[in-house]
From TrEMBL:
The keyword Hydrolase applies. This is Protein-ADP-ribose hydrolase. One of its GO terms (molecular function) is hydrolase activity. Gene3D superfamilies: Leucine Aminopeptidase, subunit E, domain 1. The keyword Hydrolase applies. Keywords: Hydrolase. Residues 70-259 form the Macro domain. It comes from Candidatus Merdivicinus excrementipullorum.
Amino acid sequence: MTQAERRIFLINELLHEQPRSAGLKIPADEQEQRNLLRSLMNIRMPKPVDETFLEVQNAYLQEEIRRKGITGLSDLLPIQPGLYLWQGDITTLRCGVIVNAANSRMLGCFVPCHRCIDNAIHTFAGIQLRLACADLMKRQGHEEETGTAKITPAFNLPCDYIIHTVGPIIRGRLTNKDEKLLASCYHSCLELAEQNRLRSIALCCISTGEFRFPNEKAAQIAIQTVKGFKAQTHSEVKVIFNVFKDIDYKIYRELLGAD
């Protein structure tokens, strides 16, 4: 199959699962097709699917990521010993584990084509990720608590694993409890990476988007927590501070002494 044929196949299969979408015409425009496929993946509930679908989906997503361009840890230079700063799409990063800023349900973002990191990671990892997270939550028996984390395979992403953590939601002024919970997120992620003997971890800007944690304070907490963890545990894990927005890149560069 060509990439276009894979995309049409996947769209048709997902539309077939949605009775309310019966008769929906697939757009001719390539980008509109991509958006439709992503939307259908985003709204799909966690449930098994046949092997043929998975084979086509996996080939499609891996090619899409390849076309976006994959960045490996070896392509980066440390900004401090064992610490890296990289601005880019975390779904294209090849390392031991990437961190996903999840919500307490831990099932990914259900809003079609939403621009949050949770949506991007679940989209390009594939539908297996939502099912894996649902299995974790079923065994746990309750929603994930703020400040804690869970690890899953990365499926179609170039990294090996994904750590999902739930950051604090800021309502009103920032509190000391909010700061401690965010620090707990980073500490939980680092602990999981260490327990799984992972040699590198990419930390995203947890809670600074939809959850409204102030960017500069969040960066300070992230860096302090990482340095404190490495000093206390003598961990040799390489830490990549992954940012997407220009404002976060500027903040981290200043805090890490790159300017």
